[in-house]
Design goal:
By secondary structure, the chain is an alpha/beta fold. Helix content is about 40%, strand content about 20%. The protein has a four-stranded parallel β-sheet, sandwiched between helices. Helix 2 (about 25-35) packs parallel to helix 3 (about 45-60). The model has no long low-confidence stretch (mean pLDDT about 85).
Length: about 100
């Protein structure tokens, strides 16, 4: 990432939740948020997929956690709020499959 872009979009100390982040656009968005300094909650219905994405993010020295969640289920939404209860959520990105 070029430093001129990082300066424009500094997300240091911000928290982002990205759903649908086990692959594709959601995974790319989660990685981009992390590169710009955000702490990222990587979420999807696929625990295996989000763990893979978190591993990639962490391997590059960024901060991310995996949280399995189905945004169509109320109890699942409560589950995703647990790891972020102490933090103020700065961004939420919902990548939903039609």
């Amino acid at each position: 990432m070029k430093s001129k872009y990082k300066n424009l979009f500094d997300l240091t100390d911000k928290v982002a939740i990205v759903t649908g982040a086990s692959k594709g656009i959601g995974a790319s968005i989660a990685k981009a948020f992390a590169e710009f300094g955000a702490k990222v909650v990587v979420s999807s219905r696929s625990q295996e997929g989000i763990e893979r994405v978190v591993k990639e993010i962490s391997a590059n020295g960024y901060n991310a956690i995996a949280c399995e969640c189905h945004v169509g289920e109320d109890l699942s939404l409560i589950h995703i709020s647990e790891p972020t209860r102490q933090a103020e959520i700065s961004y939420a990105v919902f990548c939903l499959k039609k």
